[in-house]
Every structure is written in structure tokens, then in C-alpha cells.
Amino acid sequence: xxxxxxxxxxxxxxxxxxxVFILFPLYMAVTIALKNQxxxxxxxxGLPTNLRFENFARAIEMTNFxxxxxxxxxxxxxTVVLTILTNSLVAYAIARNMNKxxxxxxxxxxxxxxxxxxxxxxxxxxVKLTASxxxxxxxxxxxxxxxxxxxFNVFIYVGYIRSIPIDLEEAATVDGTGTFGTFVRIIxxxxxxxxxxxxxxxxxxxxxxxxxxxVIISKQSQYTLPLVQYVFQGQFNTEFNxxxxxxxxxxxxxxxxxxxxxxxxxxxxxxxxxx
Amino acid sequence: xxxxxxxxxxxxxxxxxxxxxxxxxxxxxxxxVHIEFFQNKPEAKASFDRLVAKFNEENPNIVVTQTxxxxxxxxxxxxxxxxxxxxxxxMGATDTYSVLGKSGIFADLTGxxxxxxxxxxxxxxxxxxxxxxxxxxxPYAANADGIMYNRDIFDKLNLEVPKTWDELMDTxxxxxxxxxxxxxxxxxxxxTSNLLFNALAPNIAGIDFLLQRRDDxxxxxxxxxxxxxxxxxAVLPYGTNDNFGRTYADGNRAFANGEAAMYIQGTxxxxxxxxxxxxxxxxxxxxxxxDDAESNNLVSGVDxxxxxxxxxxxxxxALKFIGFLLEEENISQYIEEQTAFSAVExxxxxxxxxxxxxxxxxxxxxxxxxxHYIPAAVQLNSLVQEFLQRGDVDAFLKRLDSEWDKVANxxx
Amino acid sequence: MAKRKAxxxxxxxxxxxxxxxFHTFPALQGxxxxxxxxxxxxxxxxxxxxxxxxxxxxxxxxxxxxWFTFKFAIVVTIVINVLSLLIAxxxxxxxxxxxxxxxxxxxxxxxxxxxxxxxxxxxxxxxxTVWGQNxxxxxxxxxxxxxxxxxxxxxxFVAIWQGIALNTILYLSGLQTIPTQLYEASxxxxxxxxxxxxxxxxxxxxxxxxxxxVLAMKNALMVFDLIVALTNGGPGxxxxxxxxxxxxxxxxxxxxxxxxxxxxxxxxxxxxxSIVQIRYLQRRETDM
Lengths: 275, 412, 288
Hints:
The complex is a heterotrimer.
Chain A: H1 2-5, H2 9-34, H3 37-42, H4 54-63, H5 65-97, H6 102-113, H7 119-132, H8 138-161, H9 167-174, H10 179-190, H11 192-208, H12 211-216, H13 225-236, H14 240-274
Helix pairs in contact in A: 2-14, 4-14, 5-6, 5-8, 5-11, 6-8, 8-11, 9-10, 11-14, 13-14
Chain B: H1 2-25, E1 33-39, H2 45-58, E2 62-67, H3 72-81, E3 88-91, H4 95-102, H5 120-130, E4 138-142, E5 145-150, H6 151-156, H7 165-177, E6 181-183, H8 190-193, H9 195-204, H10 207-214, H11 223-234, H12 248-256, E7 260-266, H13 270-276, E8 282-286, E9 298-299, E10 302-308, H14 315-326, H15 328-338, E11 341-342, H16 358-363, E12 366-367, H17 380-390, H18 393-411
Parallel strand pairs in B: 1-2, 1-3, 6-7, 9-12
Antiparallel strand pairs in B: 3-10, 4-10, 4-11, 5-7, 5-8
Helix pairs in contact in B: 9-11, 11-18, 12-13, 17-18
Chain C: H1 2-33, H2 51-56, H3 60-92, H4 98-106, H5 113-135, H6 151-175, H7 180-188, H8 193-204, H9 206-221, H10 225-230, H11 242-251, H12 256-287
Helix pairs in contact in C: 3-6, 3-9, 6-9, 9-12, 11-12
């Protein structure tokens, strides 16, 4: 018994050493972003002699950071909101009918099987399709993210909804509440935990996505943050400090959110995968 | 009640969709003509930015925006697949240009007044490339692929600019013996791996050889190509200890800081090098490829040509922008900042770093890049990069033939 | 009741239509294009039957991309799972500041793969090489990513650095479901740590093992962003993944139809692997 409660120092030391491995690249990124060219020549590893916040100012100006941030924010927030509103509704209809009707059961497997289709397979045709529909913009990106999310989200939503007792809804139906009304007033509020999970997963994947915006978005003024980093690689050229300042800026919004909502995010992601 | 909540739900969704549409398709409601200028040179982004700003100021009804993505040719192809071709395109005279020209993506500019004063030799280069009579592109600036050298190091070691291949190897040897790195090789990037090959092949094998290869009259396994391959390989011992780990950006910085005596690059890299060290005393010579200095040509291609999309609704404004770029004052500014050569006649490049190249331009001893005549799908850059690592001449030449045939088969 | 049923259809049919239009339809289009010679932008094209497939199977660039992708995916999947299980066990031991450490280990998962790739690209060329030279290790003193034979290990290293995050957290949540009493019981029987792991821990977290294997494998097989940031498929084509080949080939030099055929083959391969993997791992779970 005593054994279990005492701190396991060996594990603790190994775990602490491991965090060095995780944090080192980020430490390097921060120090390089704050150095000037001379500091870089003297020592790559050391701390900067005087903090150079100009690197950040220049990176913001050069990459039009706030525009990219705005684009990323629009796409991420809209996708999360739209996904939670629509995908949960679809999953609700499926979950409540899949045992009774072949159509809904078929729909369930149709969506789920799409999880096995890697994106590159639809990449070439989807570029043609979105172009012909005039969707090579942020709106197109939001719609595609929302639609593609169905495959995985229906899977986890259905699992969750089926664990909600059906009695509540039956009572509401007896009261004369319509199906949509039942969903909006009874089921949706009960889905808060799983909505959080889906929201977090979609938020992370949409914010960090690179391939879909790369092939879909045409106008440089609509580029998202990862795309901007890609675009400016050539222009940073010899100025690594500027490049790293720009990388940090692009990662910063998500890191700040993570600092405040760490526990929540980890729980959300865990639930999503385990479900 | 039921109806209400349903309506509410629908209204919510509609609301979200509407706001999205609004932020998606907004803009361009300012009554101005918007022209997208897509160009492929990251080095030239700032120069074009300045010219674009000047143009926009002079033309309050037109707004030109510059797009300059990395891997620009792939991105351009994506745009073409989307049928969303940028209004004005600035690109090199490459195989991609040729393919797009043949497919009717670019407008025919025959007879347009902006063509006046363009050097006919460069015009000819473009028509040779596409094999068509239509004028799809206007040459803007030319470059040169050769060898950059640090004049201070050469002076210190009492070295002359090499005129033949053997002299080049001899010079490299002397530099190495003096404890200095002869060549800063940046072969982590595939396109820089190809620069030496690009300079050797047109001189040793000739552009005609590549044209004949199109008709299957010759093979890459012929002796002339073997010589090209062997010479491409011969500089490796004179590089750094990490030839394959260094990139273009590393090379520019290192050469600027005097870490090597020579640097196999194009004239387009000079502005980047000066950005890292404004005081560098550099020179540039044509790659000596054989024994006869007199018959050696400088590899020079159309670095930037300007094309107009066939499908643009703003052809007139697009041509106005091109006309502006070709104005003497503007093109002079561009070629000075970019250390490029003007395609407009009568505008000289008098950068002191390029004095050794003047005779070639004056006497017209110029030859185009090899890879402009090799299908892009062959991915010559990757093949050369792999060859440099493996060092197997036979396998490389065989591979060139088989890749070429594969692409030809697919295209037929 | 009929009204209720109608409402359920209203909830799903629009989604079904959208999904069909933007997912299934393009997939079918891709299959169609694979039988043509279209370059993606020409006004006309012809049907060419199985010609693209015929050339596909002779193309060593395609074979090379499959070889790299699988070699990479297998190594990354195995290493990620071993390391993250070890870290999860460490985090599950009685240590101080567990939540802090958990937070740090999960951090890479929230970062953009592309940007992580760019940061490591710099570290590989300017930091690891300096260490290699100082320590006198020959293979480290040059940029690993520039080596024809070893570059894939560099890409795998970064994929592992980032991939550990998610799997560690999942294993940890699995370990936390195991009641401590079970260990105390085995402790009385005189079982050592090794036996304890294989007899108690592993069978109980087997479902997590399944999920982690599938997730890690799926991510690794789709690798694209990392390739773009680290090597762009090079040196030569040594680290060109299937996704990267489809992207670069599909849009470059008129291989649209040809790479569509490649996509179809890729889909079949992925589908078969997914089914086999899930079947096999689920059977193991029930066996234990």
C-alpha cells in the first residue's frame, strides 16, 4: 500500500527528461525568433542578447498576419458552429431510426465507410468541381470541412445519442412537440459533452489543415495561416529569424487557447478517439 | 410551438450560411478593375511590389495584386485546372509555359503595340519553345546560369577566371589546397542540383540534341550525354562536407559571408546574396564546359515572360499593366534590382558583378537552358539530384531515357 | 407519426445530397478520369481503357512512393505506439505535477504539422549537424534530410515527435481505467513488473492499442504536409509519399488522368489494409 502512494522518482525523472525532448524544438523556435543575425552567428543555442521584437513586427507586416488570422478564424469558427449544428442533427435522425429503417442504417454505413477514403483520391476531381461551382474561397472551404466531417462525426454522435434514454423524447412527442423541437429543446442540450468533443477536434483539424486550403483557395488574400507560412518560405530566404517569428505567430492563437483550456481539450480529444 | 422551433432552426442555419456567403464573396464591389498578377520568382516579389504600387497609384481605376506562391508552376497548373487562370502571368520560359501555350491558355498577343522594341532573339526563343506562330508571351527579363565567384578570394590566391573545363577543375583544386571551400553546393534543393547540368548539356550536347530526342533520333545514353553526366559529378569533391544537406537559402548566406570561393548559381541569386552581405565583391563567369573557350556559350534563358490569360475579361487593363512594366524607367529599375538582363532593346545591365558576361551578350553567344526542352513530368531536377547522390552514370542516363519515354507514352 | 418520419428525412436528406455531391461524386469522377487521357485542362480528351493502369504498374516512381509510404508508416506506427505506451505508464505512475507533464506531452498535437516540419527542417540542417560535429558522430554531422538513404528516417523522426502526443493521452486514459486493486492482488502472487504488464495491463488496454494502431497508421499513410515542409519528396524521390506524388504529378505536366488511376489503386490498398487491420486487432482483443 505504501508503495503506491509514494512518489515514483525514477518515473518522474524519466518523464521530466522526456519533456525536454518535446519542448526543445519550441525553445529553439522562440529563441531564434527573438535573436538578430549576429546572435545567430555567435551561438545558435544561447539566449538572445537583447530581445528583438522587431522580428515579430516585420513578420506581421510582411505576411499580412492579421488578414490570415482573420481567414483562419472565420473558417475555424464557422466550421465548428456549422458542424455542431448540422452533423448532430443528422446523427440524431440516424441514431433514432437505424434499427427500424433500412434507409437510416444504410446512411450510417455510407457515412462511416467514407472514413476509409483518403483525401488524395478525391483531391483532383474536387478541385474541378469546387471551381465550377465558384467555391474556391473561404465559404467553399467551410462547406467542404463541414461535409467531410460527417463521416467521423456521425460515428461518434450516434454512439452518444443512443446512450440517451428515448423516454424523454416520447414524453415530449406526447405533449405535441415536433421532431425538430424535440431535438432543439431536449436532445441538443443533453449533447453538450459530445458537442464539446466534436468542436475541439474540428477546431484543431480545421485550424491546422494545409492540403485542402492549398488546392481549394485561389486568392492570396484568403489564405489561411498554415498556407501563408508555406507561401512565405521563399521570401524569408536567408532571414531565419523572421521565418521563426512568423511560425510562432501562426501557432500562438492555438497555444493560448490550449494554455487556458488544456484539461478540457485533452478530455475532449480522448473521448472523441475512444468513442 | 413545433413550428416555431423548426422555423427558428431553419433561420439559424440560413443566417449562418448568409454571413458566410457575405464574407466569402464580398470585395470587388468598389467599381474598380481587379487584375491578378501571378509571378513565380520569390526573389522578385519586392521589386514587383514596388512597381505594382506605382502602377496602382497612376491608375486609380485598376487594382493590380501580386500572387507569388512557392512551387509556383504546380500552383499555376492547379489554377489552370480550376479554369481560374490569373489575368497576367509572369513565369520562366519553361516546358510548363510551352504546354500551357499549346493548350490555348494564353492570349495571342500578335500585333499588340507592347511588343515594339522587344529583342527579337528572345521572341524567337519563345516561339521555338512552343513551336507555334501565336505570340503567347512577351519576354521581359533574361538571366544567366553560370558560376559566381568571390573576387577577393580569387585575388588573394592570384587566380584567373577559368576559360576551359580543365582550368575550372584546376582552379578548384588550388582553392581547396589553400584551405578554402571551392564550391558551396546546395543540393538539398532539387532545382539547384540541376544548374550545372543545365549549363553543360546545351554546350556539350546542344539544344538540337534535345529536339532530336523528341523525335527519338538520339538517346541519352549517347557519348555526349555521358560527358555531361560525368562533368556534373566532377565538382562534388570540391564542395563542402554536406553538399546534400544545404539549401539555396543556406548557400546564399554562406557565399555572401565568404565561406566559399565559387557558387554554381544564376544571376537571379545576386540580390539575395547582397541582402545578406551588401559589401561582397562578387563576379560571375559563364560555366567553361569544354576545351575551346571561343566556342563556349553562356546559358541564358527568358527568366520572366509576361503572358495574358485567354479567358480574362480585362485584356485591355492587363496589357496596360504589361505596357507599364515594359516602360524604360520601370524595366530599368527591375533589371537593376534583380541583376537581370532586359528583353527590351537598348537597356543595358551595367552591374559590376556581370562585366565578364557582357561579351557573350554583345556577340550573341547565348544558349537556352536544357530543361526548357525536357518535359516537366520527367522531373529532371529530381533525377539529377538522385544521380548526384548515387553517382551511377549509366543508371542515370538510362533513367533519363526511360522517364522520357514514359511521359511520351502517357501523352500520346 | 408520418409527420415525425418526414422530419427525420428532412434532417438527413440534405446532408446526404451534399455528401454525395462533394465526396462520393468526385470519387466516382476520379475513377472515370482514370480511364481517360485528360490532362485536367484541355478542352477534349479520349477514353483510353486501362492504359493508365498498365503504365502505372510499370512506373518505378509509383512503386517507389508506395515503398517509401509503407516503410515510413510501419516504422512510425510501431515506434509511436511503443514510446507513447511507455510515456503513458510513466505519467500513470505516482509522480508529482502529473497534469503539467500531461499537458506538455500533448502540446505537439495542437500544432500545425507544416509549421512543425519547418522548425525541424531548420534544426536538421543547423542544429543537429552542429551536435554531430561536436560529438564526432559522422552520420549526424551532415544534414540527415539530404541523404538519399537516410532522409526517410528524418521525416519519421518528426512524425514520431508529433504523433506521440495523441497516442500517449489515449493510452493514459486507458491505463486510468485499470483499478489499482488488480495490481495489488498480483503483487501478492509474486508477479514481477514484466509479467504484470503482459498479464494485467496490456489485456485491459487492448482496445486502446487497437485505436492507436489504426490512428497512427492512418495518419502515416496519408503523410503530405511533413513531406512538403521537410524534403519536398527528395533527395531525388527518396521521400516522396503517395499523396505527394498524386499532388505534384496530378497537376504538373498533364498527368491528371494518370494520377487519378494511381488514386484508385491507393484507395483499394487503403481499404484492404483498414479492414484487415481492424479485423485482426479486434480478434486479438477478444482472444485475450
